[in-house]
User: Which sequence fits this backbone?
């Protein structure tokens, strides 16, 4: 459980971090909270020759209002998300989800940027960021680009970030009036990672019909993803128990269900449906 030898750099600016990353791109790894990378290094699943610590880079940890929603710096910790008054007022679902990640130590160190860039198939925030239709801003120093959440989590541990890009900001757009959002997970009792986790955002129209539905699922497949078939089924319909159940039955459509010692494919399928129905029902009740 001892990592291979590595060099360590602690740049103080984004420019310096990008320059180090560019010069050492085949051999460097960015370090945020270290709660995924350091265990991987200890298991020698990752053996970077250079660790570029983002901890001292100024201007990467913040929560600000932006275009009616929020802009969140990549180095913002779960602990901040859980307790920040802006997050609590704009997106309580994000604060709630951050509060059920791991334990206090993980939440004190782990960051929204690290969790997103790592793209663990069982991570919590990706499902929530997908349902909230967040976008991810990255830069390589010459070009900045933004990727929507439903195209960011491409596969297990795979995002569109290149080896010379740093994720700098996550933007969460304003929710329409009449929206309710919630995240429910079945946690692994040891680590608290999601065996299955479902985030739902439901917007009701003036007649009480489901105008817009967004569902993010984590844990069930190789990557967090939108449950588009379930969303489409419910949009335009009344949020009756029958309709919510029928939508939830469609939640695993298109997901390549995974099996491991925490659960079989069948178990994950059943749990995804159960947690989708619960999440939809609570999102509807919050929207009302
Ligand atoms: C005991 C334990 C329990 C946990 N339980 C849960 C849980 O219940 N739910 C959950 O979701 N997660 C859980 N985690 C994982 C935790 O959330 C990690 O903190 C998170 O996945 C990674 O964030 P980090 O800031 O620690 O990133 P790091 O570990 O520092 O980095 C992770 C990866 O992202 C890259 N990276 C980091 N920042 C950037 C950036 N700005 N731009 C580009 N690349 C970047 C790194 O190079 C690395 O490859 C748990 C971890 C542990 C150790």
Assistant:
């Amino acid at each position: 459980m001892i990592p291979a030898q590595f060099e360590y750099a602690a740049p103080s600016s984004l420019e310096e971090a990008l320059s180090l990353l560019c010069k050492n791109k085949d051999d460097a790894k960015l370090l945020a909270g270290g709660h995924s990378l350091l265990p991987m290094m200890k298991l020698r699943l990752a053996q970077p020759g250079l660790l570029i610590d983002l901890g001292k880079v100024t201007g990467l940890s913040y929560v600000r209002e932006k275009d009616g929603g929020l802009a969140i710096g990549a180095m913002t910790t779960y602990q901040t998300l859980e307790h920040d008054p802006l997050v609590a007022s704009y997106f309580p679902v994000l604060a709630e989800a951050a509060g059920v990640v791991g334990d206090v130590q993980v939440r004190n160190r782990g960051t929204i940027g690290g969790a997103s860039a790592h793209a663990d198939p069982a991570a919590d925030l990706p499902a929530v960021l997908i349902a909230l239709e967040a976008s991810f801003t990255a830069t390589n120093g010459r070009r900045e680009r933004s990727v929507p959440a439903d195209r960011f989590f491409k596969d297990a541990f795979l995002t569109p970030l290149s080896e010379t890009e740093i994720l700098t900001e996550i933007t969460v757009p304003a929710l329409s009036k009449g929206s309710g959002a919630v995240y429910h997970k079945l946690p692994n009792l040891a680590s608290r990672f999601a065996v299955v986790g479902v985030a739902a955002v439901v917007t009701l129209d003036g007649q009480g019909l489901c105008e817009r539905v967004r569902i993010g699922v984590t844990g069930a497949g190789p990557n967090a993803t939108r449950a588009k078939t379930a969303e489409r089924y419910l949009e335009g319909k009344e949020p009756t128990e029958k309709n919510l159940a029928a939508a939830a039955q469609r939640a695993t459509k298109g997901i390549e269900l995974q099996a491991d010692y925490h659960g079989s494919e069948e178990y994950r399928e059943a749990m995804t449906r159960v947690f989708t129905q619960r999440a939809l029902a609570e999102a509807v009740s919050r929207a009302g």
Observations:
- Residues 57 and 167 are 13 Å apart (CA to CA).
- The longest helix spans residues 265-287.
- The chain has a mean pLDDT of 97.
